[in-house]
Amino acid sequence: MERTKYTLDEKEMPTHWYNIQADLPEPLPPLLNPVTKQPTRLPPPLFPDALNEQEFSKERWIEIPEEVQDIYRLWRPTPLFRAWRLEKALDTPAKIFYKYEGTSPAGSHKPNTAVAQAYYVKKEGFKRISTETGAGQWGSAMSMGAMFFGLECKVYMVRISYEQKPYRRILMETWGAKCVPSPSKDTQIGRDILTKDPTCSGSLGIAISEAVEDALARDDTKYCLGSVLNHVLLHQTIVGEETRKQMEKACAYPDIIVGCVGGGSNFAGQFLPWIRDKISGVKPDMRIICVEPTACPSLTKGPYAWDYGDVAGLAPIVKMYTLGHTFVPPPVHAGGLRYHGMAPIICHLYKLGLVEARAESQVGTFEAGVKFARTEGIISAPEPNHAIKVVIDEALKCRESGESKTILLAHSGHGHFDMAAYDAYLSGKLVDYEYPREMVEAALANLPKVD
Ligand SMILES: *Cc1c(COP(=O)(O)O)cnc(C)c1O
Description:
The protein has 451 residues and is of the alpha/beta class. Helices cover 41% and strands 17% of the residues. The chain has helices spanning 49-56, 66-72, 84-90, 111-123, 137-148, 159-164, 166-174, 188-196, 204-217, 230-249, 265-279, 298-301, 344-351, 362-376, 382-401, 419-426, 437-444; strands at 5-6, 16-18, 31-32, 39-40, 61-63, 80-82, 95-100, 128-133, 152-158, 178-182, 221-223, 256-260, 287-293, 304-308, 317-321, 356-360, 406-411. A 7-stranded mixed β-sheet has the order 1-6-7-17-12-13-16, sandwiched between helices. A 4-stranded parallel β-sheet has the order 10-9-8-11, sandwiched between helices. A two-stranded antiparallel sheet has the order 2-5. Strand 14 (304-308) and strand 15 form a beta hairpin. Helix 14 (362-376) packs across helix 15 (382-401). The chain is globular, with a radius of gyration of 21 Å. The protein binds pyridoxal-5'-phosphate. Pyridoxal-5'-phosphate binds at residues 108, 110, 137, 227, 260-266, 336-337, 381, 383-384, 412-413.
């Protein structure tokens, strides 16, 4: 019998996060102040000093604090599986492995950074965290992270999700956080919007603005972000560092690594620990494929340009592949893949030709997700279904060519809160969205001028 599942003993667990900034062939472009357009740090009143340092650090290995390691051990290492049943169903000579982050208490990779961020907020003497959430994945992970360190947590949740998807809110409340629908009456920005439009259904941009206003108004509060930033990607490298050890036990090494990208954190967490082998020439032909939705295709359709990190234009300006900070993508079920831009680290690696990108539309991704559920058992979130689609396509190419490639899937989480999306797919009601060219063109006209 060949093995299906690979784990690690406690003493084999990685003790450091891996910082790609030590090994980049060219340094990252700077962040720019949204007003002066000069290079800047993250706004210090919003972020703990330790995270601001990590954001720009060039140290290759950053020690994971003991307290964070202790909490990681509640669900880490996450399992690495060999997808025997999927391979058989596809009749492919490819070897497919997947690293599954759905076993965390919040059901995704997001607690890897939420716990770390809460630790630094607590360590620097603050008592409270404010943050935003769209469909609720990040808000629930952050609520749990704050709980472990005895911090208060206030989550501004986009009103339409708050009303239509109550279960993630209930997770947050169970972990002790306060979750309000955004726009809310608790901030000036929220009150202004509600005065003009009392039934406003909200947007991620409005929720970010509320969470930032909240943190700026109080001395005891820091703001936390769930993706995009360098320090978030750094914390996620625990995923890839574990996978390297697990693949070694499987006597396997990936030829192709596939993951979904919204802001880029789960996939970067998996592939950054491998890409150093590509940069150093140990494995120059390794392929790394970022998968995004056709409805929000920043890497495959956006220009590499300076743009605001947030919709309100308050966050630093970053160089990234972007659809424009005012672009609001169509309502695909993969809510986590609807960010207008992409993590600067991923954009930089894409620009350098070290990673590839592909866009997939949602009906095909659900077809792939159902195939995965009916072979491997796991019902995946709509986001990783995008990566599963590409893994299946690559495995089928191997069937054509007869090559036995090793494919590693970064699987970011389960879909237990996404049953309405599966219901829509199974009843034939799920639709594909065309690439919204005109909306993107209009949003790109609003890019900031930087010379
Ligand atoms: C939030 C989320 C994503 C997208 O965010 P990244 O920062 O790109 O990882 C992907 N999958 C799941 C399950 C998520 O919750």
